[in-house]
Design a protein that fits this description.
The complex is a heterodimer of chains A (115) and B (111). Chain A is an all-beta fold and 115 residues long. Chain A is 0% helix and 55% strand. In chain A, β4 and β5 form a beta hairpin. The N and C termini of chain A lie far apart (37 Å). Chain B is mostly beta strands. Chain B contains no helices and 12 strands. In chain B, β5 and β6 form a beta hairpin. The N and C termini of chain B lie far apart (41 Å). Classes of the chains: A mainly beta (115), B mainly beta (111). Chains A and B meet through β4, β5, β9 and β10 of A and β6 and β11 of B.
Chain lengths: 115, 111
């Protein structure tokens, strides 16, 4: 089946620094990717929809200047958490939409810890 | 608005027991409904889906029926195996592939 990878799988950073998370569709092209955030024992919360070659669409309450999304190619989307603070610590998950099957494939997630 | 509510876990069963994980939803319009499964250390995988009322999704012995009258999409399996131990997420899809997820239910199956 289709595979989506995320890198890094875990990252620890200091407060005030920026962290970039990559999401790649390995064997299919994805014009649309999604970024989610998951808190412990809670559901995945959609943060933004990333469209190749255009600006991302952010959900209500998500700061676009805080969470920068770039979808530069049909197989890569990046999420940059700028000036990270401890409250940004979370599990970030991306998914990619395979149009041929109308199915979303999810990455394994990235655990961000901000000290 | 849209939301998904699923039963809290963890659910602990013995092998070959019957499984039900409840899921109810609220939505405007007619969403598609999904169950995803997340095995330890892996990403979410689509388990089954149903796109309209009364549809039954099934896969790997699991099944769920889209019940519009009760706004439910309960997951069932007649005989669970140890390998079914995972976290199960109920989800609805709306508005160009946006998903609302439930909080997940962890299933532990003991031999």
């Amino acid at each position: 089946g289709a595979v989506v990878s995320q890198h890094p799988s875990r990252v620890i950073c200091k407060s005030g620094t920026s962290v970039k998370i990559e999401c790649r569709s390995l064997d299919f092209q994805a014009t649309t990717m999604f970024w989610y955030r998951q808190f412990p024992k809670q559901s995945l919360m959609l943060m933004a929809t990333s469209n190749e070659g255009s600006k991302a669409t952010y959900e209500q309450g998500v700061e676009k200047d805080k969470f920068l999304i770039n979808h530069a190619s049909l197989t890569l989307s990046t999420l940059t958490v700028t000036s990270a603070h401890p409250e940004d610590s979370s599990f970030y998950i991306c998914s990619a939409l395979a149009r041929s099957t109308d199915t979303q494939y999810f990455g394994p997630g990235t655990r961000l810890t901000v000290l | 608005g849209n939301s998904v509510t699923q039963m809290e876990g963890p659910v602990t069963l013995s092998e070959e027991a019957f499984l039900t994980i409840n899921c109810t939803y609220t939505a405007t319009g007619y969403p598609s409904l999904f169950w995803y499964v997340q095995y330890p250390g892996e990403g979410l995988q689509l388990l089954l889906k149903a796109t309209k009322a009364d549809d039954k999704g099934s896969n790997k012995g699991f099944e769920a029926t889209y019940r519009k009258e009760t706004t439910s999409f309960h997951l069932e399996k007649g005989s669970v195996q140890v390998s079914d131990s995972a976290v199960y997420f109920c989800a609805l899809r709306y508005n160009f592939n946006k998903f609302y997820f439930g909080s997940g239910t962890k299933l532990n199956v003991k031999p």
